[in-house]
Structure formats: C-alpha cells, structure tokens
Amino acid sequence: MHPYRTHTCAEIRPEHAGETIRLSGWVHKKRDHGNLLFVDVRDHYGITQTVIDSSSPLFAAMESARPESVVTVTGRVVKRSEDTVNADLPTGEVELTVEEFKLESAAAVLPMQVAGDAEFSDEMRLTHRYLDLRREKVHANIVLRSNVISSIRRRMTEQGFLEMQTPILTASSPEGARDYLVPSRHHPGMFYALPQAPQQFKQLLMVSGFDKYFQIAPCFRDEDARADRSPGEFYQLDFEMAYATQEDVFAAIEPVLAGVFEEFANGKTVTATPFPRIKYKDSMLKYGSDKPDLRNPIEITDTTEAFRGSGFGLFAKNIEKGSIVRAIPAPGAADRPRSFFDKLNDWARAEGAGGLGYIIYTADGESKGPIAKNLDAERVSAIKEEVGAKDGDAVFFVCQPVRDAERYAGLARDKICDELALREDGCFKFCWIVDYPMYELDIDTGKIEFSHNPFSMPQGGMDALNSENPLDILAYQYDIVCNGIELSSGAIRNHLPDIMYKAFEIAGYSNDVVEKEFGGMLNAFKFGAPPHGGSAPGIDRIVMMLADEPNIREVIAFPMNQQAQDLLMGAPAVVAPERLRELYLKLAPPPKAKSSSEGSAEKGTEKSGE
Predict the structure, then answer these.
(1) Rounded to whole angstroms, how far apart are CA atoms 449 and 554?
(2) Is the CB of residue 7 less than 8 Å from the CB of residue 66?
(3) Do residues 239 and 254 touch, judged by C-beta distance below 8 A?
(4) What is the dihedral of CA 10, 145, 430, 156, to 10 degrees?
(5) For 25-69, what is each residue's pLDDT tens digit?
(6) Which residues lie closer than 8 Å to 603 by C-beta, 6 or more apart?
(7) Which residues, 6 or more positions from 594, have their beta carbon under 8 angstroms from its beta carbon?
(8) How many other CB atoms are there within 10 angstroms of residue 370's CB atom?
C-alpha cells in the first residue's frame, strides 16, 4: 500500500464499501460525539469523513490533532446510515472507519480559520496566504485559473499559434506606465527594465518570419492597484499575427474568448460570434464610455439642438460657450417619488456634474419637472421622440463641455440603471470598440499625443498623416470589452519606417528620439516587415469575471496588497549595503513623502493588454 494514500479525499463512493484504503490530508473539522470522534480529512480534491471509536488506542492521538494538521489515516470504507448521509459532499454516503493513524505534520494554533465562511482582514489573509489558499472558494478560484489557461493554450495551438517566450530583462520604454527597473552589476549606472508588455518583441517575431505567436505573458507596471488591476504584475494572453487585417485578428481571438467563457460560464449566456463592433465615437455618445456594459439597456442621446436658443437659459447659454447636452432615459421612472429624482440630483452634484436636470413624461401624456417648465411644449415633445422615451418614462440631462458631458452621462447611465434594477443578469456581453482616434489633445499642455498605442497603423497611412488634422485621424486600434470591463487593447501595427517617423513626429518625437527609444524594432522594419497585428486579453480579468469575483486579488495565488507590498514574503525590503555597493548604488531619501493625490495624478496607462 502506498505510504500516503490509495485514494484522494474526493474519490470514495458506496461501491468502495468494505475496502481498506488510505487517505492523507489536512484535519478540516472535528466533531466529538462522546464515544465517537468524527474527523473530516481534506485534500486538494475534496473531503472524506473519518470516524474512530473512543475504545481505540488511536483515539487520543486523533482527538489531539489540531485543525490543519496533516494526517494519514487507513481504514475500512463503510456506508453511512440513511439519516447520516451528507448530500452536500460527493463522498457523503460513506465514511472511513480508522484503523491506522499517523500525524505527518502538527499544526500550531491557527491565526485564521480555514473551515467555514468567516471573514478576515486583507492583511491577515495576505500575510497567511498559504492558509487562505486552503479555503474552499479561494482554492477553487486558483483551480479555475489553471483550467482557463489550459483551455486558452489548447484553443490557440489548435489555430496554429506557436507558444514562444520573450525576455523578462529588457530596455526601458517611454510608451506607457512606470517601469520596474533592475540595476546591472556588470554595467554600473545602467538598468534593465521589466517588460510592461512584450509589445516590441512580438512584433519582432513577426519580422523574423514567424506567422502566429502567443504566450501567457507576465507584464510588469509600477501602477496603483484597483479592483480590476493588480499592482506590480499581471498576466495576459499575448498574441500576434503576420499578414493579418483587423478582421483576421477578431476572427482568431473571438472563438478563443467565446469558447473559454462558454466552457466556464456556469450557466451564463455568452455573446455569439462575431461580437458587435462599436465605433469609438458611437460608444462615447451612446454609453458615455469606451468600456460599455451592454447588460445596461439604456442608451444616451445627444439633444444639444433641442436646447439651443431655448427658454431653458442655463443650457442655452452653455451651449453657446461650446457645451453639449446629453440625455439619459430612465424607463418607467415617471411614477417614482420626488425623492428618487432629488437623490440622483444630489449624487450628480457629489460627482462634480452640477446636478441632473430632468423631464418626467407621465403616463397620461403630460410632462413635468424643472426643465419641462422652462421649455416650450414643441421642444419637450421633440426630445421625447429623439430619445425614444414613452409615457411613463423620465429623461435626465447633462450639459457640459464634450469630455465632461460624455463622462457624466456615462456615470449617470450606470447609476440610473442600477437604481431602476435594469442591468441584465446571467450573461457575458462582449463587444469590440473600434476606430479609435490616433491622437488626442492633452488638456493641460495643449499638445498632441497618442491616444492609444503608438505603434498602431493610422487609417489612411501616410496620406492621412500628411493631409488630415491629426485629431481627425483614426487608427486601426481596438479594445475588446465584456460587461463593462476592458479585457484587451490591440492594433494593426505600423510596420513601415517612414510612417512611423511621421506618426511620432506629429506627437512631438524627433527621429533621433524614435531611433533611440525604438531602434531595435525600427531597424528591423527596414529589412522587410510583413503587415501584422494582434492583441493581449488580460488573464487575471478573464478569471475574475468567470469566478464572479469583485476584486482581481481573489484569482491570483500570491497577490500584493493595495500598497504593492507582498506581506507573505516581506517585499519590497531593505537591501544590505554590500549589495548596493556591488551594484554601484547609493540611496537618497526623498525630499518629502508624495501624497496619494499627487501619485494618482501622474500619467500612466490603464490598458490591461498592450
């Protein structure tokens, strides 16, 4: 017999009755019924109930084994009586009568319980993550993660993609967030950078003659944490294709994502392929976001013209100054009490929107509200038709400069949806956001900068760069979004050196800077580069959604806390002076502690993919 186990703790069934078997695992729970001691033994696979009589010479040893001690038990499988069957356990029809017992590893008094559903602080959970990972829900999340990654790998290789690894120690790049830097012992004063993404390397693989590449890539960015972003590091399904159009990229990744979500959706529906394509400008208009949650049925409408030159002076004056008006319908809200409208108005003020005006279209065909009182009936009726409102609905309004109006209307759309309980449940709704602007204007500096990925091909190529207003140029850039969460950004790449020089010139980069920062890839393009493109869906976010977890930390085996600290291993940590000397480094304390508001104000990419 094997020294530790003949079966796992999830295998035993009534057909094993009468067999002598051996199990190893952790003491999950103990229940002392006087003459009988019941001990649940747990391993990675499940739980089996064991039982020992007080007359056994092994009774005292089993009784003294603390929870989470590792034990090996040997005995005979017996069927439970009908009234003691545990229908919640796959092994609940049987139990193991203990004949041999060995304490493999005694557990100290636990700082946190593994059995049960008790809540513990993040500090406790991350400091003792090895215990937290034994808990059923967290353990299941990590198993799910492994299965999702295995499914992705299989689906990618079946399409002919080669899994390849790109460097971890590389050069710093100015393209996105802050780099993590690694000092070089052999080259004093010089640093490697951990890759924010394998962006340039995967493009170089296409130039090198490979046709389809992918990897489950680790990426490193010195960014602040949030619910759907882990500080420090994350993983993505990084892939690239040669001789590919935008539609080719979509056709390659859609069945992978749809297939994985269908496989692990646990009964939820998944958008059928091909996924809807929504232009960036339409997404900002209809949803107030380039990450629209399509489970929310509300669509925003521009009603600027209905208020231009109207009797509603506040809006009319702001429109003359360049503001726009966005209308957010509230289906069926006309019969809500006044407090419903006041609450939304107060919420909008707290968000900085200055409030939410509204019109109520009553069930009997009248119109009420502060805006309706100051707007002629013809305009009120026109707004109703334009928005698609019906009797019994209400419509809220935001009047702000374009960017603010888009943002506040998007926030109001989600708030109203939740207040009215309109969000569809039990589904994963995917869409592509396409036709991103190549450039945007930095409000603070007035300078033109890349709006998305600097390596993207502009639509119209060199002709567009030479002849069009930079702010009107679109790019072959796209994001894939599911339930309001961006899973990936991607693009058809700019593979032509002359177009790359011009594109960066418009964003304020000289040829010398481009060659210095991106010389490796740029030089490669000069020796024949195929058209290529790709994307990089975030693994952590995919698993977070499939596990129905609100925080990405719940699907990462050893995550950092909000302050980017590893409480288990004690990182970051002070380095011994001799190590600093070896690296030719000297510490200089910061002049003052940076406030959280200053830190968050600094620019950094929030893309999960590239």
Answers:
(1) 36
(2) no
(3) no
(4) -110
(5) 999 999 999 899 999 999 999 999 999 999 999 999 999 999 999
(6) none
(7) none
(8) 16
Contact 491, 452 (CB under 8 A): yes
Q: How far apart, in Å, are the Cα atoms of 379 and each of 54, 310, 315, 320?
A: 86, 8, 13, 18
C-alpha dihedral (305, 309, 312, 314), degrees to nearest 10: 90
> Please, what is the end-to-end C-alpha distance for the chain in angstroms?
52
| Rounded CA separation 226/212 (Å) | 33
**Are 534 and 248 in contact, with CB atoms under 8 Å apart?**
no
pLDDT digits (tens, 9 = 90+) for 526-545: 999 999 999 999 999 999 99
Reduced to 3 states (helix: H, G, I; strand: E, B; else coil), residue 319 is helix
Task: Judge whether 162 and 202 are in contact, CB under 8 Å.
Answer: no
Nearest to 273 by CA among 291, 297, 257: 257
Q: What is the DSSP letter of 523?
A: H
Q: Which of 74, 3, 63, 66 is nearest to 37 (CA)?
A: 63
Is-contact 187 439, C-beta < 8 A? no
DSSP label of 362: -
DSSP, collapsed to helix, strand or coil, labels residue 148 as: helix
Q: Which residue has the tokens 């708030």?
A: 415
CA-based angle 6:12:20, to the nearest 5?
A: 50
Whether the CB-CB separation of 414 and 296 falls below 8 Å is answered with yes
Q: Which structure tokens are listed for 410?
A: 């998007």
Cβ pair 197, 219 in contact under 8 A: yes
d(CA 205, CA 602) in angstroms, rounded, equals: 33
> Is residue 533 within a helix (H) or strand (E), and if so which, with residue range?
strand 532-535
The pair of structure tokens assigned to 4 is 């530790």
Higher pLDDT, 173 or 606: 173
- The CA distance from 88 to 63, in Å, is 25
Give me the residue label for tokens 């502060």.
Answer: 370
Distance CA 358, CA 380 (A): 11
- Specify whether the CB–CB gap between 219 and 234 falls below 8 A: yes
- Written in H, E and C, the secondary structure of 503-517 is HHHHCCCCHHHHHHH
Report the distance separating Cα 12 and Cα 17, nearest Å: 9
Residues 6 or more apart whose Cβ sits within 8 Å of residue 386 = 301, 303, 306, 327
- How is residue 378 written in tokens? 């013809």
Burial label for 61, CB within 10 Å (0-12, 13-18, 19+), is middle
Question: What ranges make up the beta strands (E) of 324-411?
Answer: 324-330, 357-361, 367-368, 394-400
pLDDT band at 264 (very low <50, low <70, confident <90, very high): very high
The whole-model pTM stands at 0.91
Residue 302 phi, psi dihedral angles, 5° rounding: -85, 120
Q: What is the pLDDT of residues 167-212, one digit of tens each?
A: 999 988 765 678 999 999 999 999 999 999 999 999 999 999 999 9
**534 touches 159 (CB < 8 A):** no
Instruction: Write the CB contacts of 395 (distance below 8 Å, at least 6 apart in sequence).
Output: 327, 328, 329, 330, 358, 359, 361, 383, 384, 387, 389
Distance (Å, whole) CA 181 – CA 172: 8
How do 70-79 and 94-105 pair as beta strands? antiparallel
